[in-house]
Automatic annotation (TrEMBL), chain A:
Cellular-component GO terms for this entry: membrane; oxidoreductase complex
Protein name in UniProt: Assimilatory nitrate reductase (NADH) alpha subunit apoprotein
MF-aspect GO terms: 4 iron, 4 sulfur cluster binding; metal ion binding; molybdopterin cofactor binding; oxidoreductase activity
Organism placement in taxonomy: Bacteria, Pseudomonadati, Pseudomonadota, Gammaproteobacteria, Oceanospirillales
One example of a Gene Ontology biological process annotation: nitrate assimilation
Ligase keyword on record: no
From TrEMBL, chain B:
Record flagged with keyword Ribonucleoprotein: no
The keyword S-adenosyl-L-methionine is annotated on this UniProt entry: no
Cofactor(s) annotated in UniProt: FAD
Domain FAD/NAD(P)-binding intervals: 13-288
Source species taxonomy: Bacteria, Pseudomonadati, Pseudomonadota, Gammaproteobacteria, Oceanospirillales
GO molecular function terms attached to this record: oxidoreductase activity
The family this protein is said to belong to: Belongs to the FAD-dependent oxidoreductase family.
Protein name listed in UniProt: Assimilatory nitrate reductase (NADH) beta subunit
Signal peptide: none
Source taxon at top rank: Bacteria
PANTHER family per UniProt: NITRITE REDUCTASE [NAD(P)H], PYRIDINE NUCLEOTIDE-DISULFIDE OXIDOREDUCTASE DOMAIN-CONTAINING
Length: 890, 414
């Protein structure tokens, strides 16, 4: 008997419901997952990443036991090591010598106990998270405007609006299910207008009625201009402004100053006036407007201002708190929102209360019965890693995230982690760019094992359910934190009997002395039982006591969570990114995602099918720039900035204008040797949110010359110490690498290295082409494919699928297949059989076929196939093919 | 005037000298035309006539029987009115009175004379080579001599070219202990490169043949019956042998042509219509030379026959030289070679090598054109490469797949 369990997808912030069918046998194979038709985020749909989840369940790189200083050890020993070191540094250097660096991928309950331990018991607010990199600016934007970190909208608004403005979002790839809902809505109501504001022409532009390819970072000017156009055209809601907001006039005045007219604004944004005018026209004519914004807005040195520029427009026209309208920040991670709810950021205290919130410190201290309350903001991510490098933070516990890849200026992050006295990394993977920096490794449960709650971009809390038993010694993150807390002497406060107790406490804190003062209130759950928790259905917060149905939409009543209950207009001066191009750094670098990978590929990298769309990192650049730099499709290109260097292959694209290039964020050193784009990114942050300007750097590009481009397919993992570039492309069988060496690489010595371990009978096949510069080798061991190496002087596009499938072939290689090893694919070769007529190369199978179709004599065969008509020496053999009765009757 | 009338009334006499493949095939095709106004005479010096000389190797190797040897149906020719004279070599030709005399003393007159006298094995000027157990490998008689030997005797073949190897294999299959002397460093050095020759040698060695490369015999030593019993090698050592097969090349047979005063270089000079320097005398096959080339393979000779058939019928046709692929007629050995074998300075080589399955391919390309190909093991694409060379097909767009064969290149085009 199989059972089907509902859980939530671990990828983006849409938070789709997923149904997983568990095999009857404990070690059975989990079949492909399906979308949960009852989940309000996706109603049964799943994107390609979510659909491939079952493929990611059997990673061969799971971290299975704790490690201390490189050696496997017990949990008891690991926990003692961690607790002792924390005690020591806190005693010697104060609580701020410890820090958590968490992740939008851990569950709310994990977050809650980490936040509680640090802020209430160790006594530091050094609890930051990779959410800092994704939506910190959106949080501060909401808080400045609404007094609380409240997303007003829900997903239905995306379908019900008449004008959807998507800013800095390639939802088609990053939030595919929301995008599909939008596509479906637009199909039903073609009059619905979609505007995409993005310097790059992305897949999302496919449905755009208008694409504004703005100058990078100039977003705020558009909304500044929209605000003053709204006033000029009389679109503003005077009553709403008067009753529910503050600072409208000053904000409008600033908008008029910053963006006085269409032409100034269009020029600032690098747009045609007509394009901007069209947006204004649509903005004026469509009341039901949603502005949908994401990392393109947030990852900016002025990200918070951009958010407020957007919110200002919605406040002025009262386009929020109602159906089909609102400023809608879409988060990138499955539980960035949950982290925000518990206060798991260095500039938050807990449960949507800040250190500066009057009375909050006392309230939380009393609720937690906390002995060592932190009293002020801790260090935000970039500041935190700088403090680590400076030696101020001496123990850093990194959980479920990969800062060696995701934080800007990888070299700085590396220096910090090398300097840090104790780096603790909790992860489900054994090998990440960050686990290699760890002193203590703690094996964590992963999706399908973890149990708890997540909150998606529309405030909807859903359950992630533990479906499969944790492998090895893997433990839940909340358990590891609580064990350390107990070892530190805080037994009573961390003695949870189950994860539902943590959730209940979190809910209780949200309701504690709330009385409507704080937006985040899920008091309904404060006594939740194990059974109720297990039966939890997706619900949008707030869920205060007495309102179990939750809250579809916020601010419908015009009440905000500021001191006076009024929303705040924020005067905005649009500004461009801090770094501008120079002669030395002439290109603007933009970063982002590809369709089928997620974050640092620790999970999506396990699904071979997800590597089909984009198998390797790349730099996309405009053909005009490429031509000038001597770069062709596939040329290995060095991209350098003042901070570091990346080497990836070039792809030519018109998506961005000349002068702008794009590099995806996903590839780590586990998958490629020199593709971590953060190496190029400065640690420039928004001074309000601390969010790095990760989508913007100035760089230079250079075609690397004199190379040997290669493909390696092998039964074994291989390494390429001499390569300038290598990329491991996930595959179901064996190992596949794209490799680029300096021209002089010694191929003969590679042959020996790659087949070192084989003991069977080895045969080498070789192909050498002086005309094309191709050299290809295949190693066949006991008549089966072992390793293939292709070399070429220029980039070659060779499909490795067939080669990879051969690594698991059960039959010895046939002769045509041996040839195909050096081509990469089998030809549609007619199997001629043994050659009988060597003059015309006619084989036995062709002869048999001709006879079967009526050629009854040697002469007839000759007439049809020409066999035997030149030298005639095959005629005796041909005669043997003619069946006796035919010969007689002929 | 009378003689003119007489000539127009009687049949045109076409006499073909040489009953080898070229002569027999031409005679057969002329008979097939059933032209009542011609009289065909075919004269052969061998007793057997009209057989397929190429299959001597197979006959020697016992792969076929004597009944399989026929190239043309001589009975059919006789029934159609042709005269066939065998075992009676031509002694002389008189171009002046258009006649020829046979060994038997008979004199024949012709209106059109076609010389198809073929060639003979070159006998190297080695001391002792005149003994009767030093033979060539050219005709049925040679095969009969070899076939008559009882099994498992030491025999030697001089020359590791096509013919020598075919003889060696045939003798080895008959159970003899065969040693091949070959002057070059590798076998078939005019058709193969070193790599493919090595594969071939490996294969032939498994058949029990011993190779002495880069070596010619110093002397053939006779016993007291005057037959060769031993070979003295270059290093002075002596090895036993009961038969020596000379396969170190062929010499066009031009004796009667020379005596008749025809222009001769290495062979009888002909123009593109196969005309010799003498009116109404033509030549074809291994005895003719056109444009500085002589011919030892069957394909150009078949074209010569077609040209000659047209010319004799009063039509216009031109013979031209095309590259001809080489194959070795040894069962179990697949080998194909055409065009240029050794690359020149501005050629590029494309090589595929799978030693494990004895599969080797080398192509030579020049400026976008295929100019040479060597295939060993799998020769299925040989005729396609041959066409590419012959048709001067530009292969620039398929250089990356060319060596993998037609199927790959065509699927790329498709």
């Amino acid at each position: 008997m199989t059972t089907t369990v509902s859980t939530t997808c671990p990828y983006c912030g849409v938070g789709c419901g997923v149904n997983v069918t568990l095999p009857a046998q404990p070690n059975g194979v989990v079949p492909p997952v399906s979308g949960d038709s009852a989940h309000p985020a996706n109603f049964g749909r799943l994107c390609v990443k979510g659909s491939s989840l079952a493929q990611t369940l059997n990673s061969d790189d799971r971290l299975l036991v704790p490690h201390v200083a490189g050696h496997a050890t017990t949990w008891d020993n690991a926990i003692d090591t961690v607790a002792n070191k924390i005690s020591q540094v806190v005693k010697e250097h104060g609580a701020d010598a410890f820090a958590f660096y968490l992740s939008g991928q851990i569950l709310t309950e994990d977050y809650y106990v980490a936040n509680k331990l640090a802020k209430g018991f160790i006594g530091t607010a050094n609890v930051d998270t990779n959410s800092r990199l994704c939506m910190a600016s959106a949080v501060v934007g909401y808080k400045r405007a609404f007094g609380s970190d409240t997303v007003p909208c829900n997903y239905n608004d995306l379908e019900q609006c008449d004008l959807l403005i998507m800013v800095g979002s390639n939802a088609a790839w990053t939030h595919p299910i929301l995008f599909q809902r939008i596509v479906a809505a637009k199909k039903q109501r073609p009059e619905m207008k979609v505007v995409v504001i993005d310097p790059r022409a992305t897949a999302t532009c496919d449905i755009a009625d208008l694409h504004l390819a703005i100058r990078p970072g100039s977003d705020a000017a558009i909304f500044s201009f929209l605000l003053q156009e709204s006033a000029r055209l009389g679109l503003v809601d005077r009553d709403f402004i008067a009753q529910h907001t503050s600072h409208f006039q000053a904000t409008l005045q600033q908008a008029i100053e910053s963006t006085p007219d269409l032409s100034t604004t269009a020029e600032f944004c690098g747009l045609e006036e007509a394009q901007l005018a069209t947006l204004c026209e649509w903005w004026a004519s469509q009341d039901k407007t949603v502005t949908f914004y994401s990392q393109g807005v947030n990852q900016s040195s002025s990200g918070v201002d951009k958010c407020n520029a957007i919110i200002n427009c919605h406040l002025a026209t009262a386009r929020l708190g109602k159906e089909g309208a609102g400023p809608f920040s879409i988060t990138g991670q499955p539980n960035a929102m949950g982290g925000r709810e518990v206060g798991g950021l260095a500039n938050q205290l807990a449960a949507h209360m800040d250190f500066a919130t009057p009375g909050a410190l006392d309230l939380v201290q009393r609720f937690w019965q906390a002995p060592n309350m932190a009293t002020q903001n801790g260090l935000k991510a970039v500041d935190l890693f700088q403090a680590v490098e400076e030696g101020k933070v001496k123990v850093l516990w990194i959980m479920s995230t990969n800062p060696m890849v995701s934080l800007p200026d990888t070299a700085q992050v590396k220096r910090a982690l090398e300097k840090c006295e104790l780096v603790i990394v909790s992860d489900c993977k054994a090998h990440t760019d960050t686990t290699v920096m760890a002193d203590v490794l703690l094996p964590a449960t992963g999706w399908s094992e973890k149990n708890g709650t997540v909150t998606n971009s529309e405030r909807r809390i859903s359950r992630q359910r533990g479906l499969l038993p944790p492998p090895g010694e893997a433990k839940h993150d909340w358990w590891a934190i609580c064990e350390v807390a107990k070892a530190l002497g805080f037994e009573a406060a961390f003695d949870y009997q189950g994860v539902h107790e943590i959730f209940a406490e979190h809910a209780a804190l949200s309701a504690f002395e709330n009385e409507g003062k704080r937006d985040f209130d899920i008091g309904h759950y404060r006594h939740i039982s194990q059974r109720e928790y297990d039966a939890f259905t997706p619900t949008q917060w707030p869920v205060p006591e007495g309102r179990p149905e939750g809250t579809e939409r916020m601010f419908s009543d015009g009440h905000f969570f500021t001191g006076d209950g009024r929303a705040q207009f924020i005067p905005i001066k649009p500004s461009l990114p801090v770094q501008q191009t120079t002669e030395k750094w002439p290109f603007v670098l933009n970063t982002g995602r590809v369709r089928d990978q997620w974050h640092t590929m620790t999970r999506t990298g396990d699904a071979a099918s997800l590597a089909k769309h984009t198998g390797q990192p790349y730099v996309a650049l405009h053909p005009t720039d490429a031509q000038r730099l001597g770069i062709n499709e596939g040329t290995l290109t060095r991209i350098s900035s003042a901070y570091g260097e990346v080497r990836v292959k070039a792809t030519l694209s018109n998506a961005s204008p000349p002068g702008q290039v794009f590099v995806p964020i996903h590839w780590t050193q586990q998958f490629a040797n020199a593709a971590v784009v953060s190496n190029l990114i400065p640690q420039t942050v928004d001074h309000l949110s601390g969010q790095p300007e990760s989508k913007h750097a100035v760089v230079q590009l250079e075609a690397i010359q004199d190379l040997r481009y290669g493909l390696v397919v092998s039964r074994r993992p291989q390494c390429f110490p001499e390569a300038l570039y290598w990329c491991a492309i996930p595959s179901d069988n064996g190992f596949r690498y794209e490799v680029i060496w300096p021209k002089g690489v010694a191929i003969e010595s590679l042959k020996a290295t790659f087949t070192l371990l084989e003991t069977g009978q080895i045969q080498w096949l070789e192909y050498n082409n002086e005309a094309t510069g191709q050299r290809r080798l295949a190693c066949v061991c006991d008549e089966k494919l072992d390793t293939v190496m292709y070399f070429s002087n220029r980039p070659e596009a060779v499909s490795a699928d067939w080669l990879l499938s051969n690594l698991v072939a059960s039959e010895p290689l046939s002769e045509p297949d041996r040839v195909a090893l050096l081509v990469g694919s089998p030809a549609n070769v007619e199997d001629k059989g043994n050659i009988v007529c060597s003059c015309y190369q006619i084989g036995s199978k062709q002869i048999e076929k001709a006879i079967a179709s009526g050629a009854e004599s040697v002469e007839a065969l000759g007439a049809r196939l020409k066999c035997g008509t030149n030298c005639g020496s095959c005629i005796p053999e041909l005669k043997h093919f003619i069946p006796k009765e035919m010969e007689l009757s002929a | 005037m009378r003689s003119v009338i007489a000539a127009s009334l009687r049949k045109e006499r076409i006499v073909i000298v040489g009953g080898g493949m070229a002569g027999s095939k031409l005679a057969y095709e002329l008979c097939q035309q059933q032209n009542k106004s011609t009289q065909i005479t075919l004269i052969g010096e061998e007793k057997q006539l009209g057989y397929n000389r190429i299959m001597l190797s197979s006959l020697l190797a016992n792969d076929i029987t004597q009944a399989d040897m026929a190239l043309v149906d001589t009975q059919k020719m006789i029934l159609s009115g042709a005269e066939i004279v065998s075992g009676d070599p031509v002694q002389g030709i008189s171009a002046e009175d258009k006649s020829l005399s046979l060994h038997s003393g008979r004199t024949l007159y012709y209106d059109k004379l076609i010389l198809a006298t073929g060639s003979r094995a070159s006998i190297l000027p080695i001391q002792g080579a005149s003994a009767e157990n030093v033979i060539g490998f050219r005709n049925w008689q040679d095969v009969q001599t070899m076939s008559a030997m009882a099994g498992s005797q030491p025999v030697s073949v001089i020359g590791g070219g096509l013919l020598g190897l075919e003889a060696a294999v045939g003798l080895a299959k008959r159970g003899h202990q065969v040693t091949v002397f070959h002057r070059s460093k590798y076998l078939l050095n005019r058709q193969l490169d070193r790599e493919s020759a090595r594969l071939l040698q490996n294969k032939l060695e498994t058949m029990g043949i011993t190779f002495l490369l880069g070596e010619s015999p110093q002397a053939l030593l006779h016993n007291d019956q005057g037959v060769v019993s031993h070979i003295e090698r270059a290093d002075g050592s002596i090895m036993a042998t009961n038969l020596v097969v000379m396969a170190a090349g062929i010499t066009p047979e031009v004796k009667v042509a020379k005596q008749a005063g025809l222009q001769i270089n290495r062979a009888i000079l002909v123009d593109a219509q196969m005309r010799t320097s003498c009116p109404d005398v033509f030549a074809l096959g291994e005895c003719c030379e056109f444009d500085g080339q002589t011919f030892g393979l069957v394909a150009p000779i078949w074209s010569q026959i077609n040209v000659l058939l047209a010319v004799l019928a009063g039509k216009h046709a031109d013979f031209s030289v095309a590259p001809v692929p080489t194959k070795l007629k040894v069962s179990g050995v697949n080998l194909f070679s055409v065009g240029r074998i050794q690359p020149t300075a501005d050629d590029n080589c494309i090589v595929f090598q799978d030693e494990g399955s004895n599969h080797y391919r080398k192509l030579i390309v020049n400026d976008g054109y295929l100019v040479g190909a060597i295939l060993y093991g799998n020769v299925a694409d040989g005729s396609w490469y041959f066409q590419l060379i012959q048709n001067k097909t530009n292969v620039s767009d398929m250089l990356d797949l060319l060596v993998f064969g037609e199927a790959y290149c065509q699927s790329k085009v498709a």
